[in-house]
Amino acid sequence: MAKIAVLGYGVVGSGTVEVFYKSKENLEKKAGEPLDIKYILDVREFPDSPYADKFVKDFDVILNDPEVSVVSEVIGGIDPAYGFVRSALMAGKSVVTSNKELVAVKGAELLKIAKEKNVNFFFEASVGGGIPIIKPIHACLEANEIDEIAGILNGTTNFILTKMIRDGMGFEEALKIAQELGYAERNPAADVEGTDACRKICILASLAFGKHVYPESVHTEGITKVTLQDVEYIDSCDSKIKLIGCARREDSGEISIGVFPAVIRNESQLAGVNDVFNAILVRGDATGDVVFYGKGAGKLPTASAVVSDIVSAVKHSDTSRSLTWSDSEQSFIRPFEKFTCAHYIRLSSDNIKAAESEVAALFGEVEYLSSKNRPENELAFITKVIPENDAQNACEKLSQSAKIMGRLRVLDY
Amino acid sequence: MAKIAVLGYGVVGSGTVEVFYKSKENLEKKAGEPLDIKYILDVREFPDSPYADKFVKDFDVILNDPEVSVVSEVIGGIDPAYGFVRSALMAGKSVVTSNKELVAVKGAELLKIAKEKNVNFFFEASVGGGIPIIKPIHACLEANEIDEIAGILNGTTNFILTKMIRDGMGFEEALKIAQELGYAERNPAADVEGTDACRKICILASLAFGKHVYPESVHTEGITKVTLQDVEYIDSCDSKIKLIGCARREDSGEISIGVFPAVIRNESQLAGVNDVFNAILVRGDATGDVVFYGKGAGKLPTASAVVSDIVSAVKHSDTSRSLTWSDSEQSFIRPFEKFTCAHYIRLSSDNIKAAESEVAALFGEVEYLSSKNRPENELAFITKVIPENDAQNACEKLSQSAKIMGRLRVLDY
User: Fold this and answer.
1) Is B200 a catalytic residue?
2) Rounded distance, CA B264 to CA B248, Å?
């Protein structure tokens, strides 16, 4: 009999308890032994809950109960989650978590403790909600060298962009609808500024490349500057704007990594990912491109990933698994100014002829885009693949005689 | 040190050896111990191979060598693969295979032997080539009740349909190109008649629903009757024709299952799967729809799945895993005549007015489709969701006064 503690009875926590009891019989078959949730930790009171007798307010009750072998942390954030998780691992309990911030910031340290204590630290739910991605990368694609990983990792921003693309709605209006529908927080910064996607690409890159990538090493841009004008031009070249987190192994062995709104061709599997859905593309040297698609958030999808990890932790309770990466100086992260891709640039100028000449001088041949609402004093074009630095310098020069209205990176997935 | 034997040095076998040695160091880290391929079984001679010293022609050498703990069967077909796999399992060796026919026909029996002998029988490569699907369903989605599973499971037919849809090419011409490119066999029956897709949906359904589904229980149609006229009408209603294998849990607990060319709306994640790519959609009660996409065949993708299973078999060498399903009478398979979906029907008639009245009488309200090349004596329409039986009966009645030119089922994924 394995006894489990659930830390936090918010959306994911209550979902975890719900999914656990709904599928208990099947889970026990998979785990090979009876399972039960012994404690639920929350500071609030839930006197009417059918699980009322399981609630505790003091984490030490859980920590000091040798019967509890698996702790499920679904509180979110660093504090107090980090302290709880660390103590649980130190006490020889396995931990599963949906907490992307915790894994992105403290993953290497927690994995190291788990290894030393011969217990598990699993975090399937931290990326892609209910989409299986952590375990498949770790335990299905290990015969591959992963060259690149890229994803639509945040459902809120994807919902907003979908509204802009499909319905021609402005950013602010689309954000408001996302808030009304409960997809976006009242303070939407973590979503729209790319912070959430950044944490997720950090976790994926750390897993794929074996060294911890910290959020502060990642060039991160959100979608607040994406305009309907850009959406329209991009539509005219059979592409879509998506907030992409991507990480790429360079020939030098360095990792290029970033989060930004990017232009994706319509043929790409990522372009058809709409609304709150997420998708993650993994480019392996043997498999080629593999894509995982599904609901990236939500109570039951996320809970189902947490519960799956609980079963894995019970099944492999006597062995520290090989899911791990090492801590690292961030010197293997390639400076983002060297990131290479094509660029979409939109500018306005009183002298379009002169601007065209300057574009030719700075970028060589470019692909000009049309748009049915193109003002006469506007140009939009896509450059060849160039380093970030070159694109920035060229834009600076251009902005002496023209106004840069928009710039987006063009990715090839 | 775990010693491995590879049975068969064809495309997948040589790929397995190649991928294994390329990623050996990483695989050993994952497995937690040194690994090596000790034998390669093939009736042919490979004197110039760098692995020449590993080749044997007599399976008994492998069977009787207690050092060999994992056997990788990549011969394909039932005979002699079945005998080899059975003997290996009986001798207490784990087996991994890419052989979909073997798993679809003998899976329940082989899983039972594996369980009795406390060894593993893994078959990730048997469905979807390099796409992780077996392990994710088994070990990531276990907190879900799977309601439905559907996929584009055969790359050859998807390539042919893509050519028909994109380039307006006829079936025969597209097949010829597929053969020239090596995507289709000289005898393409197993692909174009749906046999290959049928084996794969059997494996997926057995895994998802826990009882062996045998190929002969599955209503199977290929793509040979799909015409360019149908492609054009379907295009006009923002949909695509795809060869789909699907299995659905009915409220009665029965399983509906079939393989046939189906109409899929363009918004569906399955509609954008082109060329030789495969995709599998899993509809879980907690996760909602999750889709796995990638190359469904090919030397290196398939080999990478085989090698991943080898590592899993080594890692879990001392425990029979919970990946299993039970043998079964096929009485839980719902007769296909009860399969419910909407139907696309195309007919020609000398009296279109009369035909329209009869369609209304038989099907009630239908959605008529246009096509830029529609002959005046032709009608194409989509019915409401009805049982297969009703669709068939109505078509029989219709065919007394009109000619049924095409019928396709319309699926909602």
Assistant:
1) yes
2) 16
Return the structure tokens found at B103: 């798993």
The pTM (predicted TM-score) of the whole model is 0.96
> Does residue B308 belong to the interface with chain A, where contact is any CB pair within 8 Å?
yes
Question: Which residues sit opposite A151 in a β-bridge?
Answer: A245, A280
pLDDT of residue A346: 97
Interhelix angle B100-117/B195-209, nearest 10 degrees: 30
**Across A296-349, where does the E strand assignment appear?**
340-348
> Which tokens hold the place of A155?
């459902």
Q: Tell me how crowded residue B270 is: count the other CB atoms within 10 A of its CB.
A: 22
Cβ within 8 Å, pair A286-B292: no
Q: State the pLDDT at residue B101.
A: 97
Show the tokens assigned to B309.
């299973």
Among A31, A38, A2, which Cα is nearest to A17's? A38
Does A318 contact B at CB distance below 8 Å?
no
Q: What whole-number distance in Å separates Cα of residue A293 and Cα of residue A130?
A: 9
A148 CB within 8 Å of a chain B CB: no
Residue B4 C-alpha, separation from nearest chain A C-alpha, in angstroms = 15
pLDDT score at A390: 97
- Pair B23, A143: CB distance under 8 Å: yes
Residue A371: pLDDT band (50, 70, 90) is: confident
What is A119-155 written as a DSSP string? --EE-GGGSSTTS--HHHHHHTSTTS-EEEEEEE--H
Print burial letters for A353-386: b (CB count within 10 Å at least 16), e (below 16): eebeebbeebbeebeebebeebeeebbbbbbeeb
Decide if the complex's ipTM is over 0.90: yes
Determine whether the interchain pair B300/A286 forms a contact, defined as Cβ–Cβ distance below 8 Å. Answer: yes
Beta strands at B2-7 and B35-41: parallel, antiparallel or unpaired: parallel
Q: What are phi and psi of A142, to 5 degrees?
A: -75, -10
- Residue B313 corresponds to which tokens in the numbers above? 């078999």
What distances in angstroms separate CA B115 from CA A260, A367, B324, one per listed residue?
49, 61, 8
Please say whether the beta carbons of B192 and B186 come within 8 A.
no
pLDDT for A335-349, tens place per residue? 999 999 999 999 999
Q: Are strands A146-152 and A239-249 parallel, antiparallel or unpaired?
A: antiparallel
Question: pLDDT class for B271, splitting at 50, 70, 90?
Answer: very high
Q: For residue B250, how many other CB atoms are within 10 A of its CB?
A: 14
How many residues are recorded in chain A? Answer: 413
